[in-house]
Amino acid sequence: MTKTSTWNHPTMSQTTNKELVIGLVSVSDRASSGVYEDQGIPALAAWLAAALTTPYRIETRLIPDERAHIERTLIELVDEERCDLVLTTGGTGPARRDVTPEATLAVGTREMPGFGEQMRQISLRFVPTAILSRQLAVIRETPDHAALIMNLPGQPKAIKETLEGLKDLEGKQVVGGIFAAVPYCVDLIGGPYMETDPAVCKAFRPKSALRPPQT
């Protein structure tokens, strides 16, 4: 069973020229069939609400671990819903039903290997089994649109650590999270200008790409 919903962020501006649209996809046989409640989408949505200061709209999908279904969902979110960023959670391990990376690669036009490398570096700080993770990222391009698609871990704690990175007790960044590079990547593929709360995640851009803070 596929569960689909659309969320409007409460700070959505009605005058934004180009709406930022983010797709959240939770891949789980049991959650999509109602065996247990999905935790991936709520964790992603909560983190984005804390980290992003740019108005945005979220499209959510809760689907089973079926490669064809995952591929169709990713294509729909990018090509039809015009998502600029798609975050998936679940289905990235070595088990036979874990096919999210294969589906993601199939719909991508270019792979972005640095994201997967950094995700594993973060997770290895906690568990040696992080090397079993096959998380990756791609860009999907159409003639008039492009989106960044990233596979994230399945657990809420790991999702937060992966996106935000790790800080010491004094708040100093020990390991950088992957989301710091996302806004500039979205810039480069023609998406909306994304701003973040630096207390959660400081987006990095070269000085030539910076814009005055929006009010």
Could you give a quick summary of the protein structure above?
The protein has 215 residues and is α/β, with parallel strands linked by helices. It contains 7 helices and 9 strands; from the N terminus they run ββααβαβαβαββαββα.
Oligomer: single chain
How many individual β-strands?
9
Radius of gyration: 16 Å
Please state how the strands of the largest beta sheet are arranged side by side: 1-3-2-4-7-6-5
Low-confidence segments, given as residue ranges, are 9-16
> Helical proportion?
25-40%
- pLDDT averaged residue by residue: 91
Judging from the principal axes of the Cα atoms, what is the shape?
globular
List the helices and strands and how they pair.
Elements: E1 3-8, E2 20-27, H1 29-32, H2 40-51, E3 56-63, H3 67-80, E4 85-89, H4 100-107, E5 110-111, H5 113-123, E6 137-142, E7 145-152, H6 156-164, E8 165-167, E9 173-176, H7 182-188
Parallel strand pairs: 2-3, 2-4, 4-7
Antiparallel strand pairs: 1-3, 5-6, 6-7, 8-9
Helix pairs in contact: 2-6, 3-4, 5-6
Features:
alpha/beta; 23% strand; single chain; 30% helix; 215 residues; 7 helices; two-stranded antiparallel ribbon
Question: What features would you describe in this structure?
Answer:
The protein is an alpha/beta fold and 215 residues long. The chain is built from 7 helices and 9 strands; from the N terminus they run ββααβαβαβαββαββα. The chain has helices at residues 29-32, 40-51, 67-80, 100-107, 113-123, 156-164, 182-188, and strands spanning 3-8, 20-27, 56-63, 85-89, 110-111, 137-142, 145-152, 165-167, 173-176. It has a 7-stranded mixed beta sheet, with helices on both faces. A two-stranded antiparallel ribbon has the order 8-9. β6 (137-142) and β7 (145-152) form a beta hairpin. α2 runs parallel beside α6 (156-164), α3 crosses α4 (100-107) and α5 (113-123) packs across α6 (156-164). The N and C termini lie far apart (42 Å). Mean pLDDT is 91; it is low at 9-16.
